[in-house]
What does this fold into?
Amino acid sequence: MSRPASRPPTPAATPTATATPAATAGSARRRPGEHASELVVPSWWLTVRRLKAFVQQPAYLVITLIQPVIWLYLFGSLFRRVVELPGFGAGSYLDYLAPGVVVMSAVSTTMWAGMNVLEEIDRGTLNRFLITPISRSAIMNGNVVEQALSVTIQSLLIVLLAWAGGAHYPGGVPGLAVLVVASVLLGTVFSAMSNAVGMLVRQRETIIGLNVMLLLPLTFLSPAFMVRGLMPDWMQTVSSYNPVTWALDASRAALSEHPDWHLVWTRCGGLLALATLMVWLSVRTFRAYQKSV
It folds into this structure.
């Protein structure tokens, strides 16, 4: 018997065609959007998750407003005659004090952000997120964005309380917007720093000790309660490197009757650069934590 003739290869057996340049370019064009959605969408949902917990604790918002009220009305009444000192340059101490209270409240509130991280670790919630496809940056960003929104709400409430007490804002709405933005940027610096410390040390005592150690020096080495020109020379030098001073300089420059916008953009630019650096650092410490689990 003769052997059957061999069959030619079928089309299915032929190698698949390579992607065309147009298809490759189309997929490349989609990647940036896909990467952005992988970061933005999870960050937003994690922020909403934390905001829901915040709304369920209305007493926390009330408690965080007690200290600013004390600073506004107790310090405002106690030091109201400070404006009579030569070189102070303000007509009303409450007008001078209001931006300082907004900025310092942003600092004192966000410095405790690391405690939330430790609570997530203790509950095991953070470890559960590690087995999900959520971006690691989004996990940290959710905490930072929630703190920024909290600072915004708190700042607006303090502005209203100071206005009810007789404070004036010659810079109007643009000046108040700069005050809130500067406070949010400063709060981002300290919330990201607190998150990084929480990830590195994982001890509540360290965060508490660090906050207690930093809060008063940051306050009194800035023009929050006293103009810089009346400080000792060495304090003026240190104050110029204090990010709290940058936020206050930008806020008061924007709230003045004749705003110095060059100073505003310079100080806000410095705060933005520092906030970006601290957020990057907090993400790096989170990845170090991930490797240790």
Q: What stands out?
A: The first helix runs from residue 21 to 55. The chain has one domain: 37-292. The mean pLDDT is 79. Residues 98 and 159 are 7 Å apart (CA to CA).
